[in-house]
Amino acid sequence: MDAGLAAVLGAAVATVGTIATSWASRSLTKTQLRVESLRVRREPRRSSYEAFSSAAIALHDHLQPWITIGRQLDRPRTSGAEKWDGISYLSRDSFKEGYSDRVVELADEVSRYGRHVILDGPAELEPCVTRIVDLSGTLASLFRLMQSFNRFAGDEGRSGMAYNTSGLPDELIQLERAVRDFLLEAGAALDRDLHT
Q1: What distance in Å separates the CA atoms of residue 156 and residue 175, rounded to the nearest whole number?
Q2: Cis peptide leading into 44, omega within 30 of 0?
Q3: pLDDT at residue 157, as a whole number
Q4: In whole angstroms, what is the distance from residue 53 CA to residue 113 CA?
Q5: In whole angstroms, how far apart are CA 182 and each of 124, 148, 156, 185?
Q6: Is the pLDDT of residue 20 over 50?
Q7: In whole angstroms, what is the distance from residue 177 CA to residue 61 CA?
Q8: pLDDT at residue 183 greater than cutoff 80
C-alpha cells in the first residue's frame, strides 16, 4: 500500500472516529439533560402529591378513632329496642383539648396542598383532588360548626349541641378510597413524565 494512501485512509478513519465520538458524546449529553429536566420537573410534583396525600391521611387517622368508637359514647342512651339515629350531643368537653382545632387545621392543610397539586398538574388529577378536599371539608364541618358555636355561646356552650354523625363512618371510608385513587392517578402521571 502506498504511504500516501495509508495516510489518507488513516486520516479518514480518524475523522470518522472523531465524528462518531462527537455524536455519541452529544447524544449522551442530550440524554443526561433530558433526564435532569425530567427530574427537575418531576420532583416538585412528586413532593406536592406527597404533601397532599399525607395531609389527607393525617386527617383520616386523626378522626378514625372518634368516628368509629368515640362518637358512640356521646350518643343519647336509648332502650335496647330502639335503633340509634346517629345523633350525638357534643360540646367542647366531648374532646381532648386541641382535638377539634387539629381537625380543622388538617382539613385546611388538605385544601391548601390540594391547590398545589392542581397548580402542579396534570389536569387529570383535579377530580381526585377535588373529591378529597370536599370529603375533608365535610368531615371537618362538624368541628368548624362546633368551634363557631362554642365561640359565640361562651360558657353556655358547655351544654352541647345535637349533631347528626350517622354519615361520618361512610365519609371516612370514602376519604380513604379517594386517597388511594389519587395515589394511583398521581403515580401514573409521574410515570407518564418518564415516557414523554
Answers
A1: 34
A2: no
A3: 46
A4: 9
A5: 10, 32, 43, 5
A6: yes
A7: 13
A8: yes
